[in-house]
């Protein structure tokens, strides 16, 4: 009980501290923006740096971009051009597609930003948080963003770095939509597991853009398959053996009855052999009946069954083909993690 | 006892008769057979069992009306001992009222008279029979086997010893040639008539019959 209370209290304290930190960074950003608007650039710079200096989780990326834009503009107006360039460079690396609002910032700010953007080569990749797709038919899409023209390679690798599929290799001027059909290079559906969607420069240089990656968690979901068509009620293809055996039984039982009659009805008194003649005749008649009713093929039924069987087999083959197609088009659920910088490979 | 038997037969025939709308049909049967009689009654054989045999001819006519039939039958022949020292005429007559509640079963009842006639004396048996006949097709509609059993509901004989239990049975096969107005029958029957003081008369017959018309 005491232990649970301590854990709960600690969780609340930690969670509360994070909220306070976030609010504090946001408040600092707000105060910095207001100071910038009041042309109090030194105060604005201090507040904005303070807001950015807080824990990295204190501000969302969009707010960080806003803080960096105001900080860059503040530094520019403070005459700290190099600081402004460094801030904008940081901003471009954060989001290569970001543009300062031209209604808010004057041309000298936006022009400097464009200059920095052109000089800073950055890559970003944006993916939807969850994508459900049927392999081969539907596609998972990722948008590759670059701050300037860049030659990139987009690959899908296993978590251990093993290449699974190359999705694109070539130049990207501004943004590029890359899609994946859910298959490996071998043409099979990707198995359950974690994969890395990596966007790397084709010719890595020290001042070139850094490779970015997104962790994708892929999970297969079995597709619905069709039930097999029920077997049609086939007609009997041979006559039943029942009548043959009934005939034989009738003959043999009656023959036996003829032979046994004196024993049953006359206490077996010295009967003549006449009963054997009749018993044998009836028994033979039973055998005649047996062979007359011997099972034989029913041609009309055989023909009708053949056509029914063919039609059923066609339906069955159709369902099998459809199911095979459905099984080939596995359903995948792709969950994307956050975008991170990819580690440079030793090669 | 006789009354109960007749009522039973009529009751079993009622459903068939009630639903009947057809016309009555006639059937005639002619029999040719051979009979063996073995008698070990005290009156018949002071010195052992008497054995007689001989050919017989007979026939039966029936009026059939939707599962209900009335028939009259007659059989006659001369029987002799193997050494020809004993000779008797055999005469049988019967009246039968029959019903067929289901296609495979016929039940009948009626009086039956059998007489052994010599120059000096006539031994006459009179009994009321209740009969049940079961048919089993071997080849549908053309070859049928049957077994018929009967027992006397009451019996009389003009012997001093008096009549006891009388019963019998018949088994055979009937062949109906396709597209022919007649059918053939091969049958074996045995009757056993006991007398009260001991001993009995056993009659066996093998016969071939031709039947014309409905059964």
How would you portray this structure in words?
The complex is a heterodimer of chains A (347) and B (215). In chain A, 48% of the residues lie in helices and 20% in strands. The two termini of chain A are 55 Å apart. About 2% of the residues of chain A have low confidence. Chain A has three domains: 107 residues, Alpha Horseshoe (Serine Threonine Protein Phosphatase 5, Tetratricopeptide repeat); 110 residues, Immunoglobulin-like; 86 residues, no CATH class. By secondary structure, chain A is an alpha+beta fold. Chain A contains eight helices and nine strands. In chain A, strand 4 and strand 5 form a beta hairpin. A six-stranded antiparallel beta sheet of chain A has the order 2-9-8-7-4-5, with no helix packed on it. A three-stranded antiparallel beta sheet of chain A has the order 1-3-6, with no helix packed on it. Chain B has 215 residues and is mainly beta. Chain B has one domain: OPCA outer membrane adhesin/invasin (Lipocalin, Beta Barrel), CATH 2.40.128. Chain B has a ten-stranded antiparallel β-barrel with strand order 1-2-3-4-5-6-7-8-9-10. In chain B, a hairpin with a 3-residue loop joins strand 6 and strand 7. Chain B is globular. The two termini of chain B are 27 Å apart. The chains are: A alpha+beta (347), B mainly beta (215). At the A-B interface, helix 6 and helix 7 of A face strand 1, strand 6, strand 7, strand 8 and strand 9 of B.
């Amino acid at each position: 009980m005491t232990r649970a209370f301590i854990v709960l209290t600690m969780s609340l304290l930690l969670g509360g501290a994070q909220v306070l930190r976030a609010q504090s960074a946001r408040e600092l950003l707000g105060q910095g923006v207001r100071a910038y608007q009041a042309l109090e650039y030194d105060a604005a710079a201090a507040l904005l740096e303070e807001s950015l200096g807080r824990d990295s989780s204190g501000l969302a990326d969009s707010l960080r971009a806003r803080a960096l834009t105001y900080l860059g503009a503040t530094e520019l107006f403070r005459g700290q051009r190099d600081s402004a360039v460094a801030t904008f460079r940081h901003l471009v690396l954060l989001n290569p597609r970001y543009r300062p609002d031209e209604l808010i910032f004057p041309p000298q700010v936006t022009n400097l930003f464009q200059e920095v953007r052109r000089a800073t080569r950055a890559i970003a990749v944006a993916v939807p948080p969850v994508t459900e797709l049927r392999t081969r038919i539907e596609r998972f899409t990722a948008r590759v963003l670059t701050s300037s023209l860049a030659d990139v390679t987009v690959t899908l690798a296993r978590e251990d770095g093993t290449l699974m599929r190359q999705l694109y290799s070539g130049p990207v001027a501004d943004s590029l939509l890359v899609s994946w059909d859910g298959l490996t290079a071998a043409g099979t559906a990707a198995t359950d597991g974690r994969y890395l969607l990596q966007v790397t420069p084709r010719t890595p240089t020290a001042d070139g853009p850094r490779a970015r990656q997104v962790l994708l968690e892929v999970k297969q979901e079995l597709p619905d398959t069709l039930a097999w068509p029920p077997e049609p009620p086939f007609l009997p293809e041979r006559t039943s053996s029942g009548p043959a055996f009934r005939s034989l039984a009738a003959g043999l039982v009656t023959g036996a009855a003829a032979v046994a009659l004196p024993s049953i009805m006359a206490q077996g008194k010295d009967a003549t052999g006449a009963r054997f003649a009749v018993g044998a005749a009836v028994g033979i008649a039973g055998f005649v009946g047996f062979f007359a009713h011997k099972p034989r093929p029913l041609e009309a039924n055989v023909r009708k069954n053949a056509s029914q069987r063919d039609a059923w087999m066609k339906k069955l083959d159709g369902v099998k083909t459809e199911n095979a197609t459905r099984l080939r088009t596995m359903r995948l659920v792709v969950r994307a993690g956050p975008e991170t910088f990819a580690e440079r490979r030793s090669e | 006892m006789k009354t109960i038997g007749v009522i039973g037969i009529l009751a079993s025939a009622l459903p068939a008769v009630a639903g009947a709308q057809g016309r009555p049909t006639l059937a005639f049967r002619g029999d040719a057979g051979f009979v063996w009689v073995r008698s070990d009654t005290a009156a018949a054989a002071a010195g052992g069992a008497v054995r007689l045999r001989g050919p017989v001819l007979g026939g039966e006519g029936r009026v059939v009306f939707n599962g209900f039939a009335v028939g009259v039958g007659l059989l006659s022949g001369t029987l002799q001992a193997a050494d020809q020292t004993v000779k008797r005429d055999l005469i049988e007559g019967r009246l039968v009222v029959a019903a067929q509640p289901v296609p495979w079963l016929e039940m009948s009842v009626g009086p039956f008279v059998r007489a052994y006639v010599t120059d000096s004396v006539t031994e006459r048996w009179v009994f009321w029979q209740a009969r049940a006949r079961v048919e089993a097709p071997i080849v549908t509609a053309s070859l049928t086997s049957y077994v018929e059993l009967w027992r006397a509901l009451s019996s009389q004989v003009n012997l001093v010893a008096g009549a006891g239990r009388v019963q019998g049975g018949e088994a055979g096969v009937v062949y109906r040639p396709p597209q022919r107005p007649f059918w053939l029958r091969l049958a074996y029957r045995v009757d056993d008539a006991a007398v009260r003081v001991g001993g009995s008369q056993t009659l066996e017959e093998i016969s071939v019959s031709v039947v014309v018309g409905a059964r």
